[in-house]
Amino acid sequence: MKRQKRDRLDRAFSKGFQAGVGGRSKEHCPYSMLDSKSQWLGGWREGIDGRLSGLFNK
Question: Where do the coiled-coil regions begin and end (predicted)?
């Protein structure tokens, strides 16, 4: 049985979140389409917020 791939927008959000937690700049967004880019930036914001509030330690 094949595993279903995650939605592209969910994947963009997840990648943005990982970038935010890792401390990367939002200028490193790899997406150019508006929907994917906005999802990536939303994930990035949440990742940065979590990192700044001390939820994630590197």
Answer: none
